[in-house]
Amino acid sequence: MADHSPAFLALVAEARTRVRTIAAEALPSLLARQPTLLLIDVREESEYAAGHLRGARHLSKGIIERDIEALYPDRDTPLYLYCGGGYRSVLAADNLQKMGYRNVWSIDGGWRALKNLLPTE
Q1: Is the dihedral of CA 14, 65, 41, 32 positive or negative?
Q2: Residue 29 belongs to what H/E stretch?
Q3: What is the pLDDT of residue 2?
Q4: For residues 45 and 102, what is the distance between their CA atoms, to the nearest angstrom?
Q5: How far is the C-alpha of 23 from the C-alpha of 113, rounded, in Å?
Q6: Which superkingdom does the taxonomy of this entry point to (predicted)?
Q7: What is the DSSP string of 36-87?
């Protein structure tokens, strides 16, 4: 795992104060209760192509704000975002909330934790 710069970590920490998070370990039981839960992978296209959670939609951090309204116009739609480790998903979730989305979650641990807990493609 690459080291993150102090400024990036500070940006994520500040955004994290506004974003709801869920531990990766809690996701399997949540999915068992809500199998149609919307998982959004905000990693880069090459990361998604190398492996992702079964059923996850790819909307990289670079385009999610541009495309989210066309895909999910209802701002109350529950959206669960993940990235590699839980940093980029916090930033993306924060931006979606600024756009008026009210039920956005960032998955702590991201892909590194989720790939050992849930089916992948």
Answers
A1: positive
A2: helix 27-33
A3: 64
A4: 26
A5: 9
A6: Bacteria
A7: T-EEEE-S-HHHHHH--BTTPEE--TTTHHHHHHHH---TTS-EEEE-SSSS
User: Quick one: tokens of 101?
Assistant: 């989305």
Q: Where are the chain's structural domains?
A: 19-114
Q: What is the pTM of this model?
A: 0.94
CATH 3.40.50.720 given to domain 19-114: no
Of the candidates 83, 93, 113, 114, the residue annotated as catalytic is 83
100 is a catalytic site residue: no
Q: How are strands ordered across the β-sheet holding 38-41?
A: 20-23, 104-108, 79-82, 38-41, 57-58
Residue 86 gets the label, from left (phi > 0), alpha (psi -120 to 50) or beta, of left
> What's residue 103's pLDDT?
97
